[in-house]
Design a protein that fits this description.
By secondary structure, the chain is an alpha/beta fold. The chain contains nine helices and 28 strands. Belongs to the FAD-dependent oxidoreductase family.
């Protein structure tokens, strides 16, 4: 007899787990999925091209409604179907509108929430995050009739929002607390290349500053006051200051939570009948915001749900690729290094190319590529495999040598 698997969260992590499970144990479970958005499962990473205008919402669907029907998966989706409680004693999931589902195994994949900073005026209309289809649709509609957009945060998401809104004709200013862009992924030199390229696209920057106050009229944002007391006009403010694991439901259920829902090496929570994957989890002290480790979690979790015992999740080395159209950027590992490290640096201002490789004992420990990332996969393999590069050290920074191809 089939067991009942209920999935809370219809996003990339939960549905990748279901995908993997359908591959390795297609007949083991009756599957029911609850999702708070009124869509099938879509590729959240591709929201940027939708904002930019290069793709439509239908283009980024991973699983449309027909896929759930074909695979005999019960899907409850939309705000009324958001799960508000779980009775662990009865193994019962309860949605906002009273819909219930019993489970033998439960998978929590509630993802993350945008970090909305507690700035005076943040409840005004026009202040938003950049997290889902609804956000993107609001941004596209606003860009049709409004002029000024302010982005708070010079990280990956903030720059993607800035580029998309600029492409749609808005005057965009990025406000960033750090002194340079992508300060977690780039050094000062690479960031200056990036800033110059974005300024050439018409985007303005206020670095080393933050927003002290959001000022409105008739309940709608009108301008922002920066920490240096200057004012910027703003018809829209997008907060792109990071994400936080969405653990509220897990906390009310009494599961062990720290920064995220604490899981073991097979993605089980403190309740062995309940699993969790994705940006809501914390594994060995680490939380996650990139797709590669989340998909690896999904694979391990699915195999354990299928009955395999000899599986274990290990965190992967994550690399950063920027999805801003027309900009090639790759960053991985420790690109600053310590006193025992050596650096190889190549700068070509004419071509807009910057390369920096950090070495320790003839092994690459981190690097940045800007302007030309064609060899990024080769470099990433060298780092993951801890390859000794002594034999081609002199040519390492230029490109992939024939002997290593």
């Amino acid at each position: 007899m089939k067991q009942k698997l209920v999935v809370i969260g219809n996003g990339m992590a939960g549905m990748r787990t279901v995908d993997e499970l359908l591959q390795c144990a297609p007949e083991k479970y009756h599957i029911t999925v609850f999702g708070a958005e009124p869509h099938g499962n879509y590729n959240r990473i591709m929201l940027t091209p939708v904002l930019f205008g290069a793709k439509s919402v239908s283009d980024i669907m991973i699983h449309d409604f027909d896929w759930y029907r074909r695979n005999r998966i019960t899907l409850h989706c939309g705000a009324a179907k958001a799960v508000v409680a779980v009775d662990r004693a009865k193994r019962l999931v309860i949605a906002r509108d009273g819909t219930t589902a019993e489970y033998d195994r439960l998978l929590i994949a509630t993802g993350s929430l945008p970090l909305m900073l507690d700035i005076p005026g943040r409840d005004l209309a026009g202040v938003m995050g950049f997290r889902d289809i609804a956000d993107v649709e609001t941004m596209i509609e606003t860009a049709k009739t409004k002029q000024h957009a302010v982005i708070l945060g010079g990280g990956l998401l903030g720059l993607e929002a800035a580029n998309g809104l600029s492409h749609r004709g808005m005057e965009v200013t990025v406000v960033n607390r750090a002194g340079h862009l992508l300060n977690r992924q780039l050094d000062q030199q690479a960031a200056s290349f990036l800033q110059r390229q974005l300024e050439n696209k018409g985007i303005s920057f206020r670095l080393g500053a933050t927003i002290a106050e959001i000022i409105g009229r008739d309940q709608h944002i009108q301008k922002v006051r920066l920490s240096d007391n200057s004012l910027l006009p703003a018809d829209m403010l997008v907060m792109a200051t990071g994400i936080q694991p969405n653990i509220a439901l897990a906390q009310t259920m009494g599961l062990t939570c720290e920064r995220g829902i604490v899981v073991n090496d097979v993605l089980q929570t403190s309740d062995p009948h309940i699993y969790a994957v994705g940006e809501c989890v914390q594994h060995r002290g680490e939380v996650f915001g990139l797709v590669a480790p989340v998909y690896e979690q999904a694979k391990v979790c699915a195999r354990h749900l299928a009955g395999e015992s000899n599986v274990a999740y290990q965190a992967l080395l994550a690399a950063t690729m920027l999805k801003v159209t027309g900009i090639d950027l790759f960053s991985v590992g420790d690109f600053d290094g310590d006193a025992e490290c050596q650096q190889q640096v190549l700068i070509d201002h004419a071509l807009g190319i910057y390369r920096k490789i950090v070495l320790k004992n003839d092994v690459i420990v981190g690097m940045i590529l800007y302007g030309d990332t064609s060899d990024s996969a080769w470099y990433l393999n060298l780092i993951k495999n801890r390859t000794n590069i002594a034999a081609f050290r002199d040519s390492l920074i230029f490109n992939q040598p024939a002997l290593a191809a």
